[in-house]
Amino acid sequence: VPEECELSAEAFGLKAHRKIEIHRPQRGEKRELVDHALTNAREALGRKMAESSAQSRLLAGVCETFGLDGNPERIEVYDNSHIMGTNAVGGMIVAGPDGFQKSQYRKFNIKGTDITPGDDFGMMKEVLKRRFSRLVKEEEAGEATGLSGFGRPDLVLIDGGAGQISAVMEVMADLGVDDIPVVGVAKGPDRDAGLERFFIPGKPYFMLEPKSPVLYYLQRLRDEAHRFAIGTHRTRRAIDMKKNPLDEIEGVGPGRKRALLHAFGSARGVARASVDDLAKVEGVSEPLAARIFAFFHKA
Question: Which residues in 218-254 are b (16+ Cβ under 10 Å) and which e?
């Protein structure tokens, strides 16, 4: 006898209901397997609904904490990663009612030639400028979807304190984007979790109760952005270490290569250096400095 079991697909993040027709055996091992499958399905649905309810409560807490107009549907979190300014990248992760939206994560290879190695403010400004200038252009063109169809975030979280927030707000003001809430999340003294300080433009910083569920949630967002940025940086660094123009210069071995990258941040930084600056690097003689300069300035 056919039996129809309808599961709420919306509870699983789907856009429509899906009906599963089950022809239930009347007896024996097959009936036990079907009964077991139905029990598992009901339990999974229950867990999903409970998680959804918990997520809604957390987002309501975020809304209250930061004075938003409503529960955020899209939260974007930004972080940078580099080693002594080398292989600098910015990372954007996205979260909302359905948790982390990993298909919408994005990396930003830092390209600015006017950014000195290790300039965290400059890197954050470049990342936010690229993200939101594109959003503005698409909205002006009547495409209200934003970065690859992502749309506007309801909240932007920045890894950093007052300095990072000031840099970001300068970019947002230049672009005319003044209706997106921006919050800085600064690590506490000695980077202790639970002592984070939160910075909202124009207001004194504040802290949350150490055992606050909202604090735990915001820490998770911050940590996920950090994990993604570091992972992206390591991938780029591994590629650059394997494929670097410095490897093509006679007399530049692994030791001198590391010294040059440490001094100038990247192969691009080495290319911009003068002969005199190159010769100041430990292990680089004047003839080698001239050879390096000539390599990057071929006619």
Answer: bbebbebbbebbbebbeebbeebeeebebeebeebee
How far is residue 262's CA from residue 253's CA, in Å, rounded to a whole number? 14
Calpha distance 166→186 (Å, rounded): 13
Q: Report DSSP state, residue 194.
A: T
The Cα–Cα gap between 209 and 199 comes to 16
Q: Residues 113, 88: contact at Cβ < 8 Å?
A: no
- 70, amino acid identity: G
φ/ψ of residue 114, rounded to 5: -100, 5
In tens, the pLDDT along 141-167 reads 875 554 555 789 999 999 989 999 999
Using CB atoms within 10 Å of the CB of residue 38, give its burial: 0 to 12 exposed, 13 to 18 middle, 19+ buried.
middle
DSSP for 20-81, please give it. Answer: EEEE--SSHHHHHHHHHHHHHHHHHHHHHHHHHHHHHHHHHHHHHHHT-SS--S-EEEEEEE
pTM over 0.85: no
Question: Which residue bears the tokens 């409503």?
Answer: 70
Angle at 71 between CA 69 and CA 72, to 5 degrees: 95
pLDDT at 222 exceeding the cut of 50: yes
pLDDT tens digits, 230-252: 876 667 666 665 667 888 898 99
